[in-house]
Design goal:
Length: 859
């Protein structure tokens, strides 16, 4: 046992141990071991967004606490880290930081710029994750744009295509005009925005007015039908007739459909191609015309059909052409303003009512979405919803209630998964289209042994450049990160794998830790891929974390000025204190940033340091090296009832913490450990045994002292191991000094097999009862002194303890701990049921009346 430094310096200590763990490869996974001994974690690959925020520290630390527990329990933990560095998030980062636009520069030049930016961003992430002591195996690091990741992603696509799960189709698609790409249903969020409901005048063929309410009058040129509800008596006479659109004068059919709301607006609704998702359903079910007037930037264009004879107008062609020219090139918002202005001029706008409208927007850019008809690649999912629900049910959810979010998402799906993006920095589709006579447009796939390929550079086997058109779209980043377990296992199935032995040892994984907001994306898409590739679940367990909120319980944002930077916080407070804060959030729960919680963490680390320093004074007094608590108890080394009480309590805490960690309930486990440390060990036990540990008072035998110091040894040694997953730096520092011999044998407190085993501890039920009763007496004495406003150190002339009538005989239990109780209360004499009248208090548990007589102040 070496000397413990007087003061804990977190900056130097944390850096020292981080370097030590890295050099010693403390957290390395051993591929040679069997699958049964391994614990495989599918770690979230953070999106390289360029912003290191508290959410990274928050959720990744929680996963790390579980990883450290599993390793200490003896598992060969596979804990990798990846970086989701391709796709739209990265492109947006590059465009913002470099002040460029991808569409304004050569594709290869932009891709090169992306590669440079992600390298810088990833290095910042590595530094952050190392500073907070994530126990990942850095040798297993991957990037979603690396050659191996591209190969596995393309392998996944080919497998899905061969299984008739992937297909390409020209159809209406959710389109982000800001980023100029198609999106999937999961990339969309509903936003409530201020809007206006406009009552505008259509005409019937006979010239009668039809009043239609709409929020999107700029789409009038794309109107293909007017609908009413079949039970709406007001419009039965219009069945089979036509309406004439205002301004453009195009005849469109009037049809009945049960999806029209009779109460909303005027009961008449125009269907445009395409204003919303309902328009798509009507367009499909009624086989309506297609008139798309928006381009990929969200501006009005391609409006010639309104006056060139393709869609005959009853209005003069010159008038319609002038209107179209006035609108062409305008954004939807500007075109809406111009359209309403023209309708006012012609008396066709009757009423405007401000409303709040729910608008579908792109999750990344925030832009309102349009619906365009474009060719895209999809993965079929709608026909497998029942199977996905079964797979979700086969996974253990932590917390269990989070499974509802997955179920609701699956049940609410109404689009197949669009995986193609009209961007540049992504995994290319391994696809070409034949130009050979007789097979024009035929899809040509790369061979597996060609992967990874870039169709813009490479060629399908047997074809020349003149014989093919290369696919220019790239895969959505979710199409790659959805195989994150397989990116680590190096294969998508037992058949299609770079290393089949590695794949079988790593897939399916044991645990997926992730945040709740990406259940609908990352969790669902990973489940889809595992189901299609190998008919299995991707992991046995999924652990859901919440969000890190600002102190006011709102989302952190630069605009609000409530962002806390993790790098500065770790530098100031220390990683272990920040990790403590992360451990205080229960699974699935959002937690606000709290200086008070950080102060509690600092208070804990200070107390742990000081308690260890106190214990270090006494541990050298052990006459024989302690074994396990159970063996030392069996050999008669632990004789005093208070010692047996605290070790019985320790047994219960080891059992409780282990059970909670097995359920991934790191917060409950840490709470149980911390409560034992503060209340049982520090506040009570160490106070009880000071006299025996120092052995400087009359009546203390060598056996009594040895029982105390051995018990202190076991409590402290176990507590350091219990705290190790949450406070890795401090526990390593303390253990290496105080338990140097054991530390040398282990190599690290975080090494495999160092977690306390419940079987090494004992429970003495009688001692537990005695200990509880004795603590009640001590608490009552403390309360008595507090209520009389005297120092806790002030001595007692007499401590008289009386049974309450309903608890006769309890005083006999307390007498078993008389020596320790007398010294901790600093009492000259202790009386039990002496029959005299004393002033006193009833214990809070109602077991005793404890009556006291204070010594004079000078005592």
């Amino acid at each position: 046992m070496s000397t413990l430094p007087d003061k804990y310096e977190h900056k130097s200590v944390e850096h020292k141990w981080q370097q030590f763990w890295d050099e010693r490869k403390t957290y390395a996974w051993d591929q040679a071991e069997s699958r049964q001994n391994s614990y495989v974690i599918d770690t979230p690959p953070p999106t390289v967004s360029g912003l290191l925020h508290m959410g990274h520290v928050f959720s990744y630390t929680q996963a790390d606490i579980v990883a450290r527990y599993q390793r200490m329990k003896g598992k060969n933990v596979f804990y990798p880290i990846g970086f989701d560095d391709n796709g739209l998030p990265t492109e947006r980062l590059v465009e913002k930081t470099k002040n460029v636009k991808a569409v304004d520069m050569p594709r290869e030049q932009f891709i090169t710029l992306c590669q440079e930016v992600v390298q810088e961003a990833e290095e910042a992430f590595r530094a952050l994750f190392k500073s907070v002591a994530l126990s990942v195996d850095w040798a297993q690091e991957y990037q979603t744009i690396s050659a191996r990741s591209r190969k596995i992603s393309q392998m996944s696509f080919i497998d899905l295509y061969r299984k008739d799960r992937a297909f390409r189709q020209l159809q209406p698609t959710l389109w982000d005009p800001a980023d100029r790409t198609a999106l999937a249903q999961a990339d969309v969020e509903d936003k409530e925005q201020a809007s206006v409901m406009n009552d505008i005048v259509f005409k019937t063929e006979t010239g009668d007015a039809l009043i239609i309410a709409t929020t999107r009058p700029e789409l009038l040129a794309a109107c293909v039908c007017v609908f009413y509800h079949p039970d709406d008596a007001r419009y039965q006479h219009l069945q089979g007739t036509y309406a004439i659109t205002p301004l453009f004068g195009i005849k469109v059919p009037i049809l009945a459909d049960e999806h029209v709301s009779i109460e909303k607006g005027t009961g008449l609704v125009m269907c445009c191609t395409f204003g919303d998702l309902q328009d798509i359903d009507w367009w499909k079910s009624h086989r309506l015309e297609t008139r798309v007037i928006l381009d990929k930037t969200g501006r009005l264009s391609h409006m010639e059909h309104t006056y060139n004879g393709k869609s005959p107008s009853v209005n003069p062609a010159a008038d319609v052409q002038a209107i179209c020219e006035r609108l062409t090139g305008l954004t939807s918002k500007k075109a809406r303003e111009e359209t309403l202005e023209m309708m006012k001029e012609k008396g066709l706008l009757l009423k405007q009512v401000p409303i709040q409208n729910v608008v579908k927007c792109a999750e990344r850019s925030g832009a309102p979405l349009e619906i365009l008809v474009t060719p895209q690649w999809f993965i079929k999912i709608l026909d497998q919803k029942a199977e996905f629900l079964k797979k979700a049910a086969a996974i253990n959810w932590h917390p269990a209630y989070m499974k509802v979010r997955m179920d609701q998402w699956i049940e609410g799906l109404n689009w197949d998964w669009c995986i193609s993006r009209q961007r540049f920095f992504g995994v290319p589709f391994p696809v070409w289209y034949s130009k050979r006579a007789g097979e024009e447009g035929k899809v040509l796939l790369a061979d597996i042994d060609q992967l990874p390929v870039d169709p813009l550079v490479d060629l399908p086997k047997g074809y020349s450049r003149d014989e093919v058109n290369a696919e220019q779209d790239v895969m959505d980043t979710w199409a790659t990160s959805s195989v994150s377990p397989q990116l680590s296992s190096w294969g998508i199935s037992d058949v299609l794998a770079i290393d089949s032995d590695r794949h079988q040892k790593l897939f399916p994984a044991d645990l997926r830790p992730q945040a709740h907001e990406i259940i609908r994306t990352w969790a669902f898409y990973t489940l889809v891929k595992a189901h299609y590739h190998q008919d299995t679940i991707p992991w046995d367990n999924i652990m859901i974390s919440g969000w890190c909120l600002a102190a006011d319980k709102t989302k952190m944002s630069k605009s609000k000025g409530n962002v806390v930077t993790p790098v500065d916080l770790i530098e100031e407070k220390g990683a272990d204190v920040v990790r403590y804060w992360a451990s205080t959030s229960r699974l699935g729960a959002d937690t606000a940033y709290s200086e008070d919680v950080l102060k509690n963490g600092k208070r804990l680390t200070n107390k742990l340091w000081n308690a260890t320093k106190f214990a270090a004074i006494h541990l050298s007094k052990c006459q024989t090296p302690p074994s396990t608590p159970k063996q030392d108890e069996q050999q008669g080394c632990i004789t005093e009832v208070v010692d047996r009480w605290i070790l019985s309590r320790l047994h219960a805490v080891v059992k409780k913490a282990t059970e909670e960690f097995e359920r991934n309930e790191y917060c409950i486990a840490r709470t149980a450990i911390e409560e034992f440390f503060w209340k049982d060990f520090c506040d009570n036990y160490l106070e009880f045994v000071k006299a025996r540990a120092y052995a400087e008072q009359e009546g203390i035998t060598s056996q009594m002292q040895q029982s105390a110091v051995i018990t202190i040894y076991h409590c402290l040694e176990t507590l350091l191991r219990l705290f190790a997953p949450v406070l890795p730096h401090m526990t390593e520092e303390l253990y290496s000094h105080i338990f140097a011999d054991r530390y040398q044998a282990l190599g690290s407190i975080h090494a495999r097999g160092t977690w306390p085993k419940s079987d090494d501890y004992f429970t003495d039920e009688s001692a537990l009862i005695v200990g509880q009763a004795t603590v009640e007496v001590l608490d009552t004495v403390r309360r008595y002194k507090a209520e009389h406003n005297v120092s806790p150190k002030r001595g007692l002339k007499t401590l008289a303890i009386h049974d309450q009538p309903q608890h006769l005989g309890k005083t006999k239990l307390v007498q078993l701990a008389l020596f320790d109780l007398k010294h901790v209360c600093n009492a000259q004499e202790v009386l039990f049921n002496d029959g005299n009248s004393h002033h006193g208090l009833v214990s809070e548990q109602g077991l005793f009346t404890v009556v006291t007589e204070l010594l004079a102040d000078e005592a």
